[in-house]
Design brief:
With 229 residues, the chain is mainly α. The protein is built from twelve helices and no strands. Helix 2 packs antiparallel against helix 6. The longest helix is centred in the middle third of the chain and has 17 residues.
């Protein structure tokens, strides 16, 4: 496999699925937990978000009305570990208000995705990745999530354009080749994240990588290290 003929979306998905199997994502117990996680994970590692969510649960705040009705100081303290907690509190409140105004998560999930997405993107602090994470994982809408892992992986596999193109163009590369299947979009994004944490790190760990033969950016065999992803 050469960089002149890099893997297409279907072939990449097949490789990743055979290598890692089902991922059972998103790591959350409820749709609301997904929403909270999608906002808090902006510009931070998931481990910090997990600590924040557990603290929100411990305080009995993982409920739409409870979060909106709680004192700002209490919520900010609960999410402090996620970093930039003042900004994230405001963004979270905007998103939760958006959902409350539509009757809650179940009512929002009954609305068409093409209606919800532009409205969600108009909410202060919500970008395409956050919006699509909420739409896919919390509201069950078929929107493919693109993150920094996705761009890095595609670029290393010979799709150099993926690092510089707008979000919508990277997303379209997947959606034009794959059917609008919620479960598959969910699985695909989760597999990319898993692969990026095991092999396609900032400094790649190419030894044993299931994509090594199709990757122009592969390094000589080396022991895997614990670099930050």
């Amino acid at each position: 496999m050469s960089s002149d003929h890099p893997l297409d979306a279907a072939a990449l998905y097949g490789r990743l699925f055979r290598a890692y199997g089902p991922q059972d994502w998103w790591p959350a117990e409820t749709p609301l937990e997904v929403v909270v996680g999608a906002v808090l994970t902006q510009n931070t590692a998931w481990r910090n978000v997990a600590v924040a969510i557990e603290e929100v649960k411990r305080r009995g705040l993982l409920d739409l009305e409870a979060l909106l009705g709680a004192p700002a100081a209490s919520v900010k303290e609960a999410i402090r570990s996620s970093g930039f907690y003042n900004v994230k509190y405001e963004r979270l409140r905007h998103v939760l208000t958006f959902l409350a105004e539509r009757g809650g998560l179940a009512a929002a999930a009954a609305l068409p995705g093409d209606t919800l997405r532009p409205e969600l993107l108009a909410v202060s602090g919500v970008g395409p990745e956050t919006a699509d994470s909420i739409l896919l994982y919390a509201l069950g809408k078929p929107f493919f999530v693109v993150d920094s892992y996705t761009r890095r992986l595609l670029a290393r596999l010979g799709h150099a354009w993926a690092q510089r193109c707008p979000y919508a163009e990277v997303q379209a590369w997947f959606t034009q080749q794959m059917p609008p299947d919620i479960a598959q979009y969910n699985e695909y994004h989760a597999l990319i994240v898993q692969h990026s944490k095991v092999h396609c790190l900032k400094r790649p760990a190419c030894d044993g990588c299931p994509l090594a033969d199709a990757c122009p950016a592969r390094l000589p065999l080396q022991p895997q290290t614990s670099h930050d992803v």
